[in-house]
């Protein structure tokens, strides 16, 4: 398991994420059949800029699904977005 958290302010012309606003956890483990399993979670804190934190969650879900499809070797351009 790998845990990552920003300790300084991330800026792009203006502050986007203050210290502790971003936290990522990745877990990679091997299955009994030899396959690898990957899990990842990203948390964006309440103090993050509204520019990056707006939306109803569909965009985050679509990104997570696209990431999974890429890792699993599933073509990412043949299926419609999972969330509309």
Q: Roughly what is the average pLDDT, rounded to an integer?
A: 80
Largest sheet: 3 strands, antiparallel
Report Rg.
16 Å
Q: What share of residues are in beta strands?
A: 25-35%
Specify the helix fraction band: 10-25%
State the shape. Answer: flat
Q: What is the N-to-C succession of helices and strands?
A: EEEEEHH
- Arrangement of strands in the largest sheet: 1-4-5
Number of helices: 2
| Uncertain residue segments | none
**Alpha-carbon distance between the termini?**
32 Å
Q: Tell me the total number of β-strands.
A: 5
Computed structural class: alpha+beta
Question: TL;DR of this structure?
Answer:
With 84 residues, the protein is α+β, with helices and mostly antiparallel strands. It has 2 helices and 5 strands, in the order βββββαα. The longest helix has 15 residues.
Structure overview:
The chain has helices spanning 50-53, 58-72, and strands at residues 2-5, 10-11, 15-17, 22-30, 36-44. It has 84 residues and is α+β, with helices and mostly antiparallel strands. It has a three-stranded antiparallel sheet, with no helix packed on it. The chain has a two-stranded antiparallel ribbon with strand order 2-3.
What's the helix and strand layout?
Layout: E1 2-5, E2 10-11, E3 15-17, E4 22-30, E5 36-44, H1 50-53, H2 58-72
Antiparallel strand pairs: 1-4, 2-3, 4-5
């Amino acid at each position: 398991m790998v845990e990552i958290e920003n300790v300084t302010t991330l800026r792009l012309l203006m502050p986007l994420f203050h210290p502790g606003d971003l936290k990522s956890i990745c877990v990679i483990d091997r299955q009994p059949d030899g396959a690898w399993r990957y899990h990842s979670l990203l948390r964006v804190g309440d103090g993050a800029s509204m520019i990056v934190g707006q939306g109803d969650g569909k965009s985050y879900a679509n990104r997570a699904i696209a990431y999974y499809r890429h890792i699993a070797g599933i073509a990412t351009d043949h299926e419609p977005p999972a969330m509309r």
